[in-house]
Amino acid sequence: MKSPIILLKKKSTRKNSAHETGGNKSSKRETPMASRNEAKQQKEKTSQALIESALELCAEQGYASLSLRSVARKAGIAPTSFYRHFREIDEMGVAMVEQAKEALDGWLAQARKQMAFSGLKPGDGSQKQLTAIECLTRPFVKTFADAYRQTPRLLHLFFQERTGSADALRAAIGDAISALIQDLVEILKRPGKGLPCSTQTLGLLSETMITLVSRGVMERFSPSGTPQETLRAAANLIEPVIQPLTLLLLGALTLEQTKQEQE
Length: 263
Hints:
Number of strands: 0
Largest sheet: none
Number of helices: 8
Radius of gyration: 29 Å
């Protein structure tokens, strides 16, 4: 009579043991996943360190002077480790352009919330016209200055290499600027908030607006400047760029109104 009881206890022990072993296997399966996540995070961290080091070197010497060894040395890694993150310098440069595009997308998103053409009535004087158009140009320039103040080296590289010697960067920057122009056209043609001009005219205006703010950046900002110098340059950028932009949009609006009257 005792034997069956002993056997039952042994079976129960085996089941518990099997259950516990299964639990350990599950725990072991989770460990490699956690390790992969940590490795991925570390790789992303090192990639960003390489980009930050490259931007610092660009501010001192320019993009054309970058070398794999100088960037790796600045980031504190072995030169051979660079290839775990980027195949070449220009691939890293394109990654920097992508980050700059994200910053510029954020700028336009902020500008969109504030840019609104208040509209004009026949007979409104020149001062009312200028005030109405400044409701578009002032937020556009001010939010851009804020974006540049936050990431001066990144955006300086973006606009500087627009006509640089690296084909890969020029192509990436060209695509990014084309997308920015199209986004700005959509902002300027919003019903009730945009400028009453043709899509073709808005495209030309958008391209010129982005060119003027980027030129203002290149003339007034130093990528190696101190935070205080960058802050002053951002403040000094606003008024000198707003004035020509406002006159540009006023001229386009006047021309559009003249065409409509002639028709």
